[in-house]
Specification:
The complex is a heterotrimer of chains A (351), B (367) and C (312). Chain A contains eleven helices and twelve strands. With 351 residues, chain A is of the alpha/beta class. Chain A has a single domain, classed as P-loop containing nucleotide triphosphate hydrolases (Rossmann fold). In chain A, the strands form two sheets. Chain A has an eight-stranded mixed sheet, with helices on both faces. In chain A, strands 2-1-4-5 form a four-stranded antiparallel sheet. The longest helix of chain A is centred in the middle third of the chain and has 18 residues. In chain B, α5 packs across α6 and α8 runs parallel beside α9. Chain C has a single domain, classed as MetI-like (MetI-like fold, Orthogonal Bundle). Classes of the chains: A alpha/beta (351), B alpha/beta (367), C mainly alpha (312). Chains in contact: A-B, A-C, B-C.
Chain lengths: 351, 367, 312
């Protein structure tokens, strides 16, 4: 039992209730041919059986390379795309089957922040109108102090000058626009915010400001985040737990410390070892796992384990049997690899 | 700034007798915009030697990409305008050279790779043909010979099945492979200087590592001078020999890579290094630089970084600091460079909690 | 340097000395970005817009109040003064029937411009509705609308008009306009559809959907304001095209009929006398040309002004 004690200590959210439970989520995009009469000739398996839960006040990071399905996952969780299978439960209520007013009520509780601050704000609407839109769509949430005052409060909250309420998006820089997007996301007092690459379009010096802001807001309002990003350093910094996605599936899921200090899945190890460290003195000191080739086509993923075509550990079983995402032996985090083995040396200890 | 400072400052570890491959002196580039004249580059100096990697580090609007375009001679003019300075390639000034002779250098002796390979390659021509064209146009090779050379180049940059894939079109390759093809085109004619403008920004991290490794290998093989233009502090730490940190069209700090990361001599560099989340470091609040870069058409008086600087004083708001040596081979454009370098600078302000502005330390309520 | 950042309540005033990048500090006036305010700001600085606006005001007043421009009755004709050259009394000379040609050209503006406006407005309504529905809903709705659009697009309007207008006994402004609408809506519809598609996948539309906005709200508040720009510009250019098209049809003998007065009829009548009395052709040509030029230039200016990408 000696192992479970540090693991529990490393996971401060272990006894918190789940706000979001995702089970077996699947989304296949049909590939069609023909213009008038469309025939289905295949399917891109963008998300292919993803399960996890998100607990109150927690940040769950989802990392993966482009095409791994992480952005589709965000859209599924927002019901911007309808999944082919699986369930999403918000505090026990089935979010995917609700309709009408019930759906509107649940929508208020789950909000999203988009990647590109240049396209996520309507250029023809003033900042005041953009942030007030949630109240217009949900009149029952109309703030007591009046919409305009509430919008000013929200601007102040995200570090913008409330006087700028009548300005238009093009008058703001990227970082400021992202703050506007965050204010819109906060307007309806949500419980969960899905952050889809919220800082990847920002400059380095502004990225940190926005991450700190997200951090502060989480503490202040007890928000739970799903933080989707491709930048492993950013995800480590902001997340309590991390899920690593590869070709529509979770390869590994565990606490931030488990994933970064002792990654068990070969893909996680390769991913982490490829991140350059901002420290020239470590040059050559790290062993980099260089993966061969590119990720396979998600329309036609390999049999068995999807990573096996690029994996140096692959054996026969990997081609025939799909590894489940489970806790394996002494490894506390969940990993989907038949040959899971923790490697503590992928990232050298800092300091 | 004097010339001796330039050469001593920016060429640490230079072997005597080495003529610089590329020398940029007091380069000034302006853009005419509706809002006024934007000084995209305001006095840029550096030298580059064979086999050396210079990283130009900066955020968007810092002038780093304009620098690359100006050296290549592909700057859009107008609205761009070279307002002054020199760019010397092996002692010859490129800016005063007739366009004809400049074109003979472009792509041949000075080559460039871009961030977005898909839009830099011609979508309707096979990639093999595009590489072969370099040999046909510049080397006068026959079709067959050029094709053989093209396949060789594709093999060299690590494209599997090069011979069969030479007939494929750019969109049939993955992002990483396209970047390799663009690298093959750039190095086809054995250039002396290779400018890489954000070469791996659009790539996934595992592919990024492969491409950076390839670039380094090729640099060693061909003894090229490499100018790496990027905002990624991790990539720079991995490959650069020396670094110029740009901000608002000016070089804020320039030194050897170990100096920059170990003992930064400018508050901006220091701020950048402190603000990035590190993969070997968990949690905690990031030490963000507050505020935003200034508009190029409306620069603050004095130091361009002063509105965001934690050490700024009245002097910083009125007097523009020159780039000057703070240690051997280490230049910094800060009035308090020595103090920052030694870690003894006095902090006058700190960022406001939301990170949008600054608060004077003296105005803080006593705790 | 060792100071750590304490998480603290946000009580300090936000520092507002740092203005957004790209905005000069002196320009403190808040600039509107609503479709029209935005367009107007850039239009009034455009000399081509001013030239075309002056011309259009001139032609429009000609169409509405021709009496302001001439005291002569265009229908007061004396065969005795047929085909006179321009003189002080008859500035543009007289036509075959001996009518004052200046007043006829002035009175001709009304029918030509009326056809132009009716067709442009009718087409605009069809194009915006169909384009919006096709672009927003996509899939089979789009497939049906787009293929139908393509089918109509494939018919040259002159052919369609020749067939249809030929069977009509009397053809006035209404008939000609109707036929032109029937055969000329596809181009603008395609433009609208493309414009909607470029907006419909924007993240701000996703953001509105994520907030629970319905299709009508999204189309009205998010898609229309961002997709109408190019279509409004084209509709203006299109008015000029239609004025040319009306003249063409009338010239071919399937447009307006006498005794109506229109530039197309004047062109048609003048054609046999090109060598002997060239001014009969010259004056309507100048007027048609200037009107078409004015609409096209205005349309171009509007299109540029409404295109957010053309801004720095």
């Amino acid at each position: 039992m000696s192992l479970s004690v540090p693991a529990a200590a490393a996971d401060p959210f272990a006894d918190k209730p789940s706000v979001l439970e995702v089970d077996g989520l699947v989304k296949h995009f049909p590939i069609t041919q023909g213009i008038v009469f469309q025939r289905k000739v295949g399917a891109v398996k963008a998300v292919d059986g993803v399960s996890f839960n998100l607990r109150e006040g927690e940040t769950l990071g989802i990392v993966g390379e482009s095409g791994c399905g992480k952005s589709t996952l965000a859209k599924l969780l927002m019901r911007l795309e309808e999944p082919d299978a699986g369930s999403v439960k918000f505090r026990g209520e089935d979010f995917l089957s609700v309709k009408g007013d019930e759906l509107r009520r649940l929508r208020r509780k789950i909000q999203i922040i988009f990647q590109d601050p240049y396209t996520s704000l309507n250029p023809r609407m003033s900042v005041g109108d953009i942030i007030a839109e949630p109240f217009k769509l949900h009149p029952e949430e109309k703030p007591k102090q009046g919409i305009r005052n509430r919008v000013k409060e929200l601007l102040d909250l995200v570090g913008l000058n409330p006087e700028h309420i009548n300005r238009y998006p093009h008058q703001f820089s990227g970082g400021q626009r992202q703050r506007i997007g965050i204010a819109r996301g906060l307007a309806l007092n949500p419980d969960v915010i899905i952050c889809d690459e919220p800082v990847s379009a920002l400059d380095v010096s502004v990225q940190a400001q926005v991450m700190n802001l997200l951090d502060d807001l989480q503490k202040e309002f007890g928000l739970s985040y799903i933080f989707i990003a491709h930048d492993l350093s950013v995800v480590r910094h902001i997340s309590d737990r991390v899920g690593v996605m590869y070709l529509g599936k979770l390869a590994e899921l565990g606490t931030q410390d488990e994933i970064y200090s002792g990654p068990a899945h070969p893909y996680t190890q390769a991913l982490l070892s490829a991140v350059p460290l901002p420290d020239p003195t470590l040059r050559g000191a790290r062993e980099q796992i260089v993966l061969q080739g590119d990720p396979p086509n998600p329309a036609n993923p390999p049999s068995g384990c999807r990573f096996r075509t690029r994996c140096w550990k692959a054996t026969e079983i990997c081609a025939t049997q799909e590894p489940e995402l489970i806790s394996r032996g002494q490894i506390t985090q969940l990993s989907a690899c038949h040959h899971a083995e923790q490697n503590e040396k992928v990232i050298p200890a800092h300091g | 700034m004097t010339e001796s400072q330039t050469s001593t400052g920016l060429t640490p570890g230079t072997r005597p007798g080495d003529a610089p491959l590329l020398e940029v002196k007091d380069l000034q580039v302006e853009f005419r915009t509706k809002a006024g004249v934007a000084k995209a580059i305001n006095g840029l100096n550096f030298t580059l030697h064979a086999g050396e990697t210079l990283a130009i580090l900066g955020e968007s609007g810092s002038g780093k990409s304009v620098t690359a375009q100006t050296i290549m001679g592909i700057l859009d003019m107008p609205p761009g305008k070279i307002a002054g300075g020199e760019i010397r390639y092996r002692g010859e000034d490129l800016l005063s050279m007739p366009e004809e002779s400049r074109r003979r250098l472009r792509g041949v002796k000075i080559a460039m790779i871009f961030q977005d390979a898909l839009s830099s390659l011609n979508p309707v021509l096979p990639v093999g043909w595009q590489i072969a064209e370099m040999f046909r146009v510049h080397r006068g090779l026959k079709r067959k010979e050029a094709k053989v050379k093209a396949v060789e180049m594709m093999q060299r940059v690590g494209i599997p099945g090069a011979e069969e894939r030479a007939g494929d079109f750019p969109h049939q390759f993955s992002g990483g492979m396209r970047q390799r093809i663009m690298i093959a085109m750039a190095i086809a004619l054995d250039p002396d200087v290779l400018i890489a403008d954000e070469p791996t920004t659009a790539l996934d991290v595992t592919v990024q590592a492969q491409v950076m490794r390839l670039l380094k290998d090729l640099q060693t093989e061909f003894n090229m001078g490499l100018i790496l233009i990027t905002h990624d502090l991790g990539v720079v730490a991995d490959v650069a020999d020396k670094i110029a940190v740009m901000y608002s069209g000016r070089v804020m700090e320039a030194a050897d890579v170990y100096e920059i990361y170990g003992k930064p001599g400018h508050p901006y560099t220091q701020g950048l290094l402190n603000s990035i989340p590190r993969i070997d470091d968990e949690g905690g609040r990031l030490r963000a630089i507050s505020g935003l870069p200034p508009s190029l058409t409306d620069m603050p008086p004095g130091c361009p970084f002063n509105p965001r600087c934690e050490f700024a004083t009245d002097r910083c708001r009125t007097e523009r600091p020159e780039l000057r040596p703070v240690a051997d081979g280490h230049l910094s454009a800060c009035h308090y460079a020595e103090d920052v370098y030694a870690g003894t600078a006095t902090r006058t302000r700190r960022p406001s909690p939301t990170g949008a502005g600054m608060i004077d330390v003296s105005e803080e309520a006593p705790q | 340097m060792s100071e750590t950042h304490r998480p603290e309540a946000r009580v300090e005033p936000i520092d507002s000395t740092i203005e957004p990048a790209g905005e000069p500090a002196k320009n403190k006036k808040v600039e509107e970005a609503s479709l029209l305010a935005d367009a107007w700001r850039s239009l009034r600085k455009n000399p081509w817009f001013i030239i075309s606006a002056v011309l259009l005001v001139l032609f429009l007043s000609m169409a509405i109040f021709p009496q302001l421009f001439t005291n002569n009755d265009p229908r007061e004709c004396l065969l005795g003064r047929s085909r006179q050259a321009p003189s002080a009394e008859h500035w543009f000379g007289t036509d075959i029937q001996g009518c004052d040609y200046y007043s006829r050209v002035i009175y001709g503006a009304r029918n030509s411009i009326a056809v132009g406006f009716i067709v442009a407005i009718g087409t605009f309504i069809i194009a915006v509705l169909l384009g919006l529905v096709a672009g927003y809903f996509g899939s089979w709705v789009d497939a049906v609308i787009s293929r139908f659009t393509d089918m109509v697009f494939a018919v040259p309007y002159i052919l369609g008009a020749l067939v249809f207008l030929n069977v009509l006994e009397s053809r006035g402004v209404r008939e000609v306009a109707f036929v032109l609408i029937v055969f000329m809506w596809p181009t603008m519809t395609r433009l609208m559809r493309g414009s909607v598609i470029s907006v419909v996948n924007s993240e701000f539309v996703l953001a509105a959907r994520a907030l629970g906005a319905g299709p009508i709200t999204i189309m009205r508040r998010h898609i229309l304001p961002n997709s109408l720009g190019p279509v409004i510009g084209y509709a203006t250019v299109f008015t000029g095209i239609i004025i040319g098209a009306e003249a063409t049809l009338t010239f071919l003998g399937v447009g307006l009929q006498l005794p109506a007065i229109s530039w197309g009829l004047q062109l048609s009548d003048a054609q046999p006398f090109l060598q002997t009395v060239p001014h009969l052709l010259l004056f309507p040509v100048i007027f048609v040309g200037l009107t078409v030029f004015a609409f096209m230039t205005m349309g171009d200016a509007i299109r540029d002004a409404l295109d957010p990408k053309s801004k720095k």
